[in-house]
Amino acid sequence: MYPDDLKYTESHEWVRKEGDDVVSVGITEFAVEELGDVVFIELPEDGDTTGKGSPFGAIESVKAVVDLNSPVTGEITDVNSELADNLEVLNSDPYNEGWMIRIKLDDPDELDDLMDSAEYSEQFSEDN
Amino acid sequence: MRTPLYDIHVGLGAKMVDFNGWEMPLYYSGIIKEHQTVRSAAGIFDLCHMARIHVPAENMDQLQYCTTNDIKSLKNGRAHYSLVCDNLGGVIDDILVYKNGKDYFVVANAGNREAVLNALEEDNVTDLTEKKGMIAVQGPKSEDILCELFGKDIASINSYAFSFFSLCGDEVMVSRTGYTGEDGFELYFDAGKCQSIWEALMERGANWGLQPVGLGARDTLRLEAGMPLYGHELDLTIDPFEAGLGNFVCLDKPFRGREALVKYSQEKPMKQLKGLVSEQKAIPREGYKVFRNDQCVGEITSGSYSPALDKSIGMAYIEQDFCRKGKELEVQIRKRKIPFKLTELPFYKKEE
Fold this sequence. Notes:
The structure holds 2 protein chains of 2 kinds. By secondary structure, chain A is of the alpha+beta class. Chain A has a 6-stranded antiparallel beta sheet. Chain A is built from 3 helices and 9 strands, in the order βββαβββββαβα. In chain A, strand 6 (55-61) and strand 7 (65-69) form a beta hairpin. By secondary structure, chain B is α+β, with helices and mostly antiparallel strands. Among the domains of chain B are: 6-50 and 129-224, Probable tRNA modification gtpase trme, domain 1 (Gyrase A, domain 2); 268-343, Beta Barrel (Elongation Factor Tu (Ef-tu), domain 3), CATH 2.40.30.110. In chain B, the strands form 4 sheets. A 6-stranded mixed beta sheet of chain B has the order 10-11-12-9-3-13, with helices on both faces. In chain B, strands 14-17-16-15-18-19 form a 6-stranded antiparallel beta barrel. In chain B, 47% of the residues are buried. The chains are: A alpha+beta, B alpha+beta. The A-B interface holds A 36-37, 39-40, 42, 58, 60, 62-63, 65 and B 15, 26-27, 30-33, 216, 220, 280-283, 285, 304-305, 334.
C-alpha cells in the first residue's frame, strides 16, 4: 500500500534516497488524510540545517497545524517552492510531486533507523 | 455520550471526535466541501448534543432574572438570543429562549448544560436534552427542502419565529434560526424520531443537493458569519458589551449581573471583539497574539480559513485604542508576524 522504495517515520514523513548522501522528504497519504483540508504549508530555506526528529516546517489544515519532522540530520539543499501554491498535489501525488525538501545527510546510517513500507503499513494502515 | 444519530454518522464514514463528552461528527467528506455546500445548497446537522431546557410559565420571573434579554417582550411563537451572566457580569452562556404558549424553552451550549441549569436554580425546569432530538437544515435551499417535507407553510415562518408541523403523525417544532449566517431551520421532536426525520430530510433533500455537515464546518460557517462561540469569544471573563452584544442586554429590568453591566455600559470597553483578515493562508489560531508594531494589543479567540473569502480570518479582542478600522496589525503565527487588517463583523453576509 505504501511505496516499497521509500522509508518512513512514526510522524508520517517518507524518505527517498536520491543519491549516496541525498534524500527527498514528504508526507504520506495517511498524514494527508488525517489532516483533512490542507490550507497552508511552511517550508524552510535552502542552506538551513535540520536534525533528526526536529521540525523543518509546519503544515496546516482547517482544524490543526502540525510540525513536519526531519527524519535525518543534515543540510537542506532544495525546497519545493511550488508546493505552497499547489497543495492539492498532496492528495493526488504525495510521493512524487508532493516532495517537500531535499537533505544532504550528515550520517547515512540514520536511514537504518527508519521503517520500511511493511512496518509503516502495519502500524498505520486504514484499519488501525 | 452518543446522539441517536451516531450509527448514521459512522455509516456515512464520518470522522468522529469528542465534543464536550459527546461523540460527534467532525466531518463526512471534508470541512471546506461541507462549508461550501451550506453556502450554495444546504447542509443537515445533528444538534442532539445541544442542551435544551423546558421552563414552565410559573418560573418566568426566575428566567427573567437569569437572562439579560427581556422575557416580557418575547411573544408566543418567537425566539430571542440572550445571555446568562454571573454576578460580575461575566458570561455563563449564550442561549436562545423560545416562548411556546405560556411556557419557555431554552437552548444552550452542550458544554454549559449544568451551568445554565444551576443558574436557573429551579426544581421544576425539565432538562429535555436527551428526550428531544434536534436537527438543523441550513442553506439557501433549506426552505425548498422543508416545504417538500412539511408543506408550503414553512415559507411563512419568519426569522426567529417557529411553528409546529406534523410528520407521519409526529409533532415537529420548526424554527427559522441557525448558526451559519444562511437562511435555515432548526427542528425539535421526540428523540425516538431522530433517525426517521434525518432519513426523510436526506431523501427529500437529495434533489436540492443536501449533504450532511459536521462540527468542523459548523465552526467555519459561524466564524465567517461573525457569530461568537462560548469558550472562545465568550466566557466568564468577558462582558456582553466587549463582545458587541449590548443589544441583547435589557438594563431596565433586574437580573443577575445587572449592577456590573450598568457600570460597563457607561464606560467604553477596554477591549473590543473585532475581525481580522489576511491574504496569507496561515491561520490565526486561538491564543495567538496580535501586535501593532512591537506592542501586543490583543489575542485571537477563533480563526480559520474562510472559503467564502478565500482568505484567513480570525476574531480577536483588541485594546480599544487600536480598534479603528483600516489599522494594520500583525498576528504572531509561530515564528513569523503576519499582517492582518482589522475589519467589521461579519466577514460574510448571505445574498438577500
